[in-house]
Q: What sequence folds into this?
């Protein structure tokens, strides 16, 4: 674990906020097979530029489709902050062929699930349906992505929803700590800005600017479709080609420079929060870097699971912290290793944390800790891939960030 010294030995960033971090969960029907027995996915690029990844699961009874766009908050100019997330909301607000709320009603009326998310690097629309409704789900996803109306009245209604979401996040110790830590780690880089934007920027976004952002970034040359379920790849390609008819590719994604190196620091944010949240973070390499798996093991060994180093020392041992977590967020051009916890004994908890981090930086995790961390990560991956939605999500990430869907192996 020499890598631990290379990361933890750097000057880090500390944010102390005077409720536990929420990790993403995958949803979708279990497909009843073993990951090792998967037929390799097929990858096909359409003439319009869309990449189609098909993962046949013959024994599944449901299908999950992810329409992933290489467009996120990091593609925004500072004054556009929050545009990608706002656009995601507006894609649900009606098209030329479906009224407001009709897309979700069609999918959910058949017992399916329709949702979306936005991050720094991507936006994803996704649906899980019974296999008999696969064609409908694809039609809904492409209609939303291509035909959103950006109705002026609905836009203003949704602006209020987004602003309330931002205000709620700004009142949450976890949200504050997460945003301020990113600002510390990435400084003035786009990764240092909140995905939701701010009350000021979202309040000033206009319809023309949002439509321009959508047209510039949400086109087939920057899209990946992943479908996992009891599908026939050739039939899928035919269906998708019809849905893409007339959809023209746009400009390639602009290059994003990695963040500049800068000194570490600390920040104390006081407020009437009822608890103290401490987060620490370090810059790490991009998603496609060879050190990624080792950094995942390091995060797992530090504070994920009852036998992880900081849980044993701070929670089970000294009893000075709870709700410990750690993650290695591997992004397109950089990453962030971060840990955090809730405490009622700030000085004692921070002193123990720093002592353990210094020990790990100097000596690495023990062989037993490495084995437990690796086994825990493998178990998490296998659990995620038991669902069609989880598997589709893994394939999307691997295709976009790891050089192809084979990267999930």
A:
């Amino acid at each position: 674990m020499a890598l631990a010294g290379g990361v933890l030995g750097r000057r880090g960033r500390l944010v102390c906020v005077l409720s536990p971090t929420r990790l993403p969960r995958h949803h979708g029907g279990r497909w009843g097979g073993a990951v090792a027995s998967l037929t390799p996915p097929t990858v096909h690029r359409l003439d319009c530029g869309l990449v189609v990844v098909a993962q046949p699961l013959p024994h599944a009874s449901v299908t999950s489709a992810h329409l992933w766009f290489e467009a996120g908050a990091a593609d925004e100019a500072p004054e556009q902050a929050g545009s990608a997330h706002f656009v995601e909301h507006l894609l649900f607000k009606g098209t030329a062929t479906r009224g407001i709320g009709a897309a979700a009603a069609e999918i959910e009326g058949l017992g399916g699930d329709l949702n979306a998310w936005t991050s720094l690097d991507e936006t994803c629309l996704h649906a899980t349906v019974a296999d008999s409704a696969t064609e409908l789900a694809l039609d809904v996803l492409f209609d939303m992505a291509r035909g959103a109306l950006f109705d002026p009245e609905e836009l203003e209604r949704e602006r209020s929803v987004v602003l309330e979401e931002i205000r709620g996040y700004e009142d949450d110790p976890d949200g504050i700590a997460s945003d301020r830590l990113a600002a510390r780690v990435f400084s003035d880089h786009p990764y240092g800005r909140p995905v939701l934007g701010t009350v000021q920027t979202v309040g000033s976004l206009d319809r023309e600017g949002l439509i321009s952002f959508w047209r510039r970034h949400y086109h087939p040359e920057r899209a990946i479709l992943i479908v996992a379920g009891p599908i026939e790849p050739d039939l899928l390609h035919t269906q998708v080609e019809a849905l893409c008819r007339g959809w023209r590719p746009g400009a390639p994604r602009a290059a994003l420079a990695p963040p500049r190196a800068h000194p570490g620091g600390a920040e104390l944010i006081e407020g009437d929060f009822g608890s103290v949240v401490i987060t620490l973070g370090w810059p790490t390499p991009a998603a496609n870097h060879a050190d990624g798996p080792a950094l995942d093991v390091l995060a797992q060994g530090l504070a994920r699971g009852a036998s992880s180093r900081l849980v044993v020392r701070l929670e089970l041992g000294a009893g000075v912290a709870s709700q410990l977590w750690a993650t290695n967020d591997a992004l397109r051009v950089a990453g962030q290793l971060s840990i955090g916890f809730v405490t009622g004994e700030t000085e004692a908890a921070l002193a123990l944390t720093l002592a353990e981090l210094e020990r790990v930086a100097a000596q690495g995790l023990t062989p037993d800790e490495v084995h437990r961390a690796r086994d825990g990560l493998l178990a998490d991956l296998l659990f995620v891939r038991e669902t069609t939605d989880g598997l589709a999500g893994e394939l999307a990430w691997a295709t976009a960030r790891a050089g192809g869907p084979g990267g999930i192996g």
Observations:
- Residues 35-256 form a domain with the Cytochrome Bc1 Complex; Chain A, domain 1 fold (CATH 3.30.830.10).
- The chain has 14 helices and eleven strands.
